Every structure is written in structure tokens, then in C-alpha cells.
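Figure S7 source data.
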Amino acid sequence: RKGTSDKDVDYSEGRGSRVRVTGRVHRFRAQKDVLFITLQDGYGLLQCVLTGDLTKTYDALTLTQETSMEMWGEMWEVPPKQHAPDDRELHVDYYEVIGKAAGDKDAITTRVAPDSDPQTLYDNRHLVLRGENSSSVMKVRAATLRAFRQVYESEITPSCLEVTPPCMVQTQVEGGATLFEFNYYGEKAYLTQTSQLYLETCLPSLGNVFCVAPSFRAEKSLTRRHLSEYTHIEAELDFITFDDLLTHLELVMSKVIEIALSDPKTKKAVYDLNPTFQVPERPFMRMRYADAIDWLRKHDIKNEEGQPHEFGDDIAEAAERKMTDIINRPIFLTHFPVAIKAFYMKKDPEDLRVTESVDCLMPGVGEIVGGSMRMDDYEELMAAYVREGIDPKHYYWYTDQRKYGTSPHGGYGLGLERFLAWMCGRYTVRECCLYPRFTNRCTP
Ligand code: 4AD
Ligand code: MG
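C-alpha cells for the predicted 4AD complex:
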């Protein structure tokens, strides 16, 4: 099958051989005796030129956007000033309509106009995905995923091995409030909030590991950066220090961006979507939680109760984003207090009030990564379960990690949709996945 890609076309002497292309009508423009149809096939755009009798058929006169077509003709190279995509056009000598797209009141552009209300756009996400911006984000997403895998496999030493942990679990990790619970053969089970605990158990036999898996959070509030199901990229590294973790993390993110942007199509898509995107410089800024509290007080940014921030406060989404936007570069926010972080996080030996934890904050989005060193001492972990009100019974397999050759280790989870919202300059993470799941939305 000849596609709209370059590889099938011979441009010698400016003209190519006769090819067959298939695609859907992206746009069309009729002039006297000439019909320009821009065909779209998921790989690219191709301008097709119909002349003479070909412009007078019933199909040509009733053409609608998104109609699928097959066309035959000769490929011509054209000067850049004619603004044909990829400076070429197909001079059509034969075509067929394969599936006519509904027009008038039922046309796609009527069902999902750019000014449609958000509800309509979410109901019609399958049609919105046909749009240039939405499909561009999906292509950047694919390139980013590819880059992550490449980085884990070849750009870091020692490399990380990909594993696929289960999504149905019987442990809560990131707090009971956001658990999706279901009946598992008569027993209580949950959709996983994170694969972290499973990754930790892989270290002894597989070395450093990573996974790309869905995580589920029953978030009650509607925010622009919370999904009920998101793609979680998590890694776990053995025999490391907290500083190693931060260095690894900034290397991974920088390399992923470098690799993704080294592909010209991805680079164009990113900068078309987000013209002001700035490739972050290493090392990222490091800021301790306690210093962030001082910073917020100095800048008169209040906590959720409208009071000045105090040590021990959770830094809420709005305050976090304000701070990140003002500083306007990636920040590693580190050393959060024990009380506001998860039970498994290792305490800082030099200040037992805080943990060896990190959130990576990006302008426009805020937190895109959360990570930490893990408690590797058996007794300490048992005490942490008690403190958290967790029944250790269900965690025996996690606890065993401390019983059979424990090690200093740590890792992190990165929300792919948040990473993309930052890179592609999207207002919400809902634009960064195929079919977003959020409060009260599970269709289409
Ligand atoms: O900060 P979180 O909750 O950390 C963990 O789950 C750790 N167990 C990860 C680890 O260390 N392996 O989540 C990690 C990241 C966040 O920084 C955010 O990017 C993303 O997951 N995230 C969400 N993304 C979209 N919608 C949500 N509801 C999200 N909750 C977390
Ligand atoms: Mg977090």
C-alpha cells in the first residue's frame, strides 16, 4: 500500500511515480475548476489537486470534512511558497469516496466546535481526538513513552529493567481516602495507587526496575491536574543515597526531553503546542521544604485556611503552583515533614522531623514527580504501620524485604499526563491522555 509518506515517491525531475493514497478529508477549498483537498492519514497531511471533470462529480460537489477517500495520481514537488504540506502535492487522476462523513447539523465541526462547552467536548472525546492539537499531544505522548523506555534501558548505569506489576491489590499505599475498592471473590481489594511496593520487591533479583502502569485514585475534587486513572512511570533503585536519587531523576527527565526533541516531528509538535517550552537545565534547583515555607511566607502566599504557612502544613496545589510559576524553573522540593508524607519514607538521619523525600515541581503544573528513600529497617517499618493505623498483616511480603537482606534504596513515580501537560503547555492533564477518567466521568 502506498501511503502519504515520502518513502514511496520518486522525486527525480520533480515528478514522482503514480501512487495510491488513502486518508480522510482534513480540509478542502474549491476554486474555479480546481479542488484542493488536504488529506490526513495519521502520519501526515497531503495536498491533493483535482481538476477538470473530477471537480464536477456528485462526490466532489457534496464533499464533507472527515470523509475517507482513496486517490490515485502523480506526486509533484512544489515550491515552498505554495505552502503545501511537505512541499508536495498529488495530482489526482482517479478517486473514490470510501465513507462519506455526515455534514450539516451532524458534521463533526458542529458537534465539537472549539467553543463547545467542556461537557460536550468530553462526551465527544472520540471526535475531539481527530483534531490537530489533540492528536499532536497523543503523538508527543507516544514519543515520550518511547524515550522513557530508551533512557531506562540504555542511557543510565546501571540500567533499569521493565516489569509489569498487578493492578488489583490488597494494600493501600498513598492513603485510604483515594482508594477504589472492589469485591474480589468475596474479599476486599483495590485498584492500585502505585506499583512502588512491588518494584521494591524486585530489586534483589532484577536490579533496578521501572514500570509504566496505570494508577488509580478516587480523587473527590475536580482539579486540572487530577485524574482517576493515570499513567504512572515508576522506578526503584537499589544501594543508593538520596543524592543519587535526585541526580538520577534530573538525568532521566533531561534525557527523555533530549531524545523526544531529537525527532523533528516531535519537536515541531511540542513547539507548535507550546512555543515557549524551555528545556530544563541540570542541575535542577534544590529547595528544602522548610525553606519553601519561608519563601511562601515572604511572598505572602497563604495556606488553605488563609493563614501564613507554618512548618508542618501541606503545601496545597494553588500555593505550590504560584511558587513554581514565580521561580519559573524545575524545583526539587525535598525533606518534607514525616507527618505529611507516606508511611514508607525514610527519615533524614540528620533531622528526624523530616523525610528523605522529593517532589519535582514544574512551571504551569506543579508536582509532576513524587519520590523518596524507603524505610529499610524492619523495626522502624513496623512502627510506621502502627503510626499510620495500617494492619501489617497485608504487607508481609513488603516487610519481608527488610528481613532478607535489606538495602538502602529509593525511587519515584512520575505522572505521565502531568509531564506532558508541562511539556505541551496544556491547561489540564485531561488533554494528555486518550480518554480521561476523572470524577464522575468514565465515558467514552
Ligand atoms: O506523589 P505520589 O502519590 O507518589 C506515589 O505514588 C509514590 N508511591 C511513587 C513512587 O515513589 N514510586 O504520585 C506520584 C506522581 C505525582 O507526582 C503525580 O505526578 C502523579 O503521580 N499523580 C497523579 N497524576 C494524575 N492524577 C492523579 N490523581 C495523580 N496522583 C498522583
Ligand atoms: Mg505526591
